[in-house]
Amino acid sequence: MAKAARAAAAPLHSGLPDEIAIWEILVRLPPKSLLRCRAVCRAWRSATSARDFLLAHHARQPALPIACGDENGGSRYYLAAQLQPVARLDRAFCLCASCDGLLLLSEYSTATGDRFSICNPATRQYAPLPMRSDFIPLGMYRHRPSGEYRILMHREAGFLAIDGQDACYIFALGSVQPPRNIGWPQVRFSGVPVLLHGSLHWHLDKHRYLEEHWHLDKYRYLEEHWHLDDHMSRSNIIVVFDTRTETFRKICAPVVPDNNKLFEMDGMLGMSGFNDPGPIIDIWMMQDYENEVWALKYRVELKNADHLLVQFGRFVEHWNVAVASCDGDVLVLVKFGECLLQFDINGKLVCFNRKGLCLAQHRLKQTLVPHTFFPTLDGYSMNAWPFI
């Protein structure tokens, strides 16, 4: 027993104390490299499987844009800023939402409509979800008071709540309870949300919204339901869903051109917008979240745009653009023709990726932290179909 105790107390690496080997080196590795390290010995496997280590490891992973591609009837997902493959699936799934390394997928069937499922690419866990096909996911989040992972969604057009009104619903992963009606925020929104400061954020162009609802007494409607002050009435709006209280509110956004994108970078809320001619991409950052203070942080003018058009093809409609922080550098990803190009903050082309990839706007922050809801779901599998 004494010999076993001494062996257990032996350092993981003879030349380094465990505090450095574990908390300065291993914790920084990407998930695939860390899984390989577990094969070195039992001590390494034990140290890198502890929950506190896995939480710290997840916290250090970058949240990077996802690129998707179809391949022989299946789906492939990459971390776009690194072109690192994270999953290859045997079916053509549609990516609906992401949170804490989890991907919410849908697969359409003419017989049953959309069928939803959840997976963790890093651990290769997968399970179908008992979600009805007439729901549309708006976002996914972790409800910190309960620890549950939940999906915010609404009904498809034509499927209203029992009282005949539009409504949002919440579905908890692993729960046997039906989706819970939490009401409607009195304004329609869509798109990929940004999860930051415990809230989901969607950008809503107020003027576009008014154009879509021209038949209403438009300004009175917005004033009554959103209580817009003079400043907000001249600005765009960001719809915010507090994931702790599960209530909606609104904050202001900078006035930017069309085809703008919300994103999170270095713990701040950002928004990119395309200016023509140029082409120029403006990047705004919310420097003071509490007081809703925005500032124009970068203006990225793409170099040799005419040459890029000849070499790769025209800019994709709606300007498929993503901004990311990778290894301390700010990268701008833009879809030209069938290629996904990466530019640095000075507008210089860094590299271009293979054809057929599309930016999903969702971010993936990989994790090896085990989720307890997976084994509770019917059809749960690990390291099996649909992973290839």
From TrEMBL:
<dbReference type="InterPro" id="IPR001810">
    <property type="entry name" value="F-box_dom"/>
</dbReference>
<protein>
    <recommendedName>
        <fullName>F-box domain-containing protein</fullName>
    </recommendedName>
</protein>
<dbReference type="InterPro" id="IPR017451">
    <property type="entry name" value="F-box-assoc_interact_dom"/>
</dbReference>
<dbReference type="Pfam" id="PF07734">
    <property type="entry name" value="FBA_1"/>
</dbReference>
<dbReference type="InterPro" id="IPR050796">
    <property type="entry name" value="SCF_F-box_component"/>
</dbReference>
<dbReference type="InterPro" id="IPR036047">
    <property type="entry name" value="F-box-like_dom_sf"/>
</dbReference>
<dbReference type="Pfam" id="PF12937">
    <property type="entry name" value="F-box-like"/>
</dbReference>
<dbReference type="InterPro" id="IPR006527">
    <property type="entry name" value="F-box-assoc_dom_typ1"/>
</dbReference>
<feature type="domain" description="F-box">
    <location>
        <begin position="16"/>
        <end position="57"/>
    </location>
</feature>
